[in-house]
Design brief:
Blueprint: E1 2-10, E2 16-23, H1 27-48, H2 54-69, H3 71-88, H4 90-103, H5 108-122
Length: about 120
């Protein structure tokens, strides 16, 4: 946007107010502005990526990737969630337990999920 001038008016509460009047810019100018913003963002990220805030985030991301790479750990986490749902939402728990069995059939969690489903069926 380009500054076209100002407009002054009387405010209801007394005094005057001044507005900045702008004109729309062309698509080309908008694109250049956005490119500049992207460049500044990239430079900022490169400069501060090793900041005190980025390190814990990177550590958490690495831990999550490690968990996902380990099917046993992933299945165990999903099983814990399903167990919390058994009393409050048995239908949803059953869906999650079934999914664990389908997606991680060779894990300890799948065996436990089968046992939990069997116990739910007995009730």
């Amino acid at each position: 946007m380009k500054m076209a001038g100002t407009e002054t008016y009387n405010a209801v509460s007394g005094g005057t107010r001044t507005l900045r009047v702008v004109e729309p810019v062309s698509k080309e100018v908008q694109a250049k502005i956005l490119e500049g913003i992207d460049k500044i963002k990239k430079e900022y990220i490169e400069k501060y990526n090793d900041s005190h805030r980025a390190k814990p985030a990177a550590k958490a991301k690495a831990a999550k990737e490690a968990r996902l790479a380990d099917p046993e750990a992933t299945a165990a986490g999903k099983l814990r969630l399903a167990e919390t749902l058994i009393s409050s939402n048995p239908k949803r728990a059953r869906e999650r337990l079934t999914k664990i069995i389908e997606q991680y059939p060779e894990t300890k969690a799948a065996k436990e999920a089968k046992e939990l489903l069997r116990q739910m069926d007995e009730k």
